[in-house]
Amino acid sequence: MTALILIAEDEPEIAEILDAYLTREGYRTYRVGNGQTVLDVQPVLKPDLVLLDIKMPGKDGWEVLAELRRRGNTPVVVVTALDQDIDRLQGLRIGADDYVVKPFNPVEVVARVGAVLRRTSASRSETVLRVGRLEVDTQSYVASVHAASGAAGVQLALTLTEFRVLAHMAKSPNRVFSRSELIDACLPGGDALERTVDSHMSNLRKKLDKLGAADMITVVRGVGYRLADQP
Asked: Which residue range is the domain that position 107 belongs to?
């Protein structure tokens, strides 16, 4: 699925131009004209990147950027008429990934969007593991299961050990892990029994089952466990 760009711009003409050029390049877009609306829709839409104006009603872009950074690492490209060095520095200090000054060349904006997405995607791929409908973020310690339709994922309520086991297996999907391997990798101390692994696996499967994905973890008799990329 192509990247979703959230366009936060209260001037309709500018928003339409950005929308048209991004759509032409194959991106999906969603437009809002209010700073508070950005924060309202971001958790639901989970955009791959936000194009953010600064002077908007509701909340200004600085407030929105600061809140987005508190929430996570969604890439943000600031697009604004504020062209002073102090404004650029403030944007980068708060956490903008790039800064574009109006009036701009829309072709350049699209190119910068692509560059930021490539850069952040490469960084994110090192911390986010995807196996089928399962997504494991090893940086934020969050694991979620996405619906087949591609809708937003539902977070799993995991213990730290359960998360470690799931993340370790997600690094090598379809590989069979022995109980002793999982003990060494995921249960520090080395004094855990193999039946402890079975207990953690049972709990994991029950939690996955509630989201219709219990079959992702399978038992290989006499060997151990496999995390399959197809539930």
From this structure: 4-125
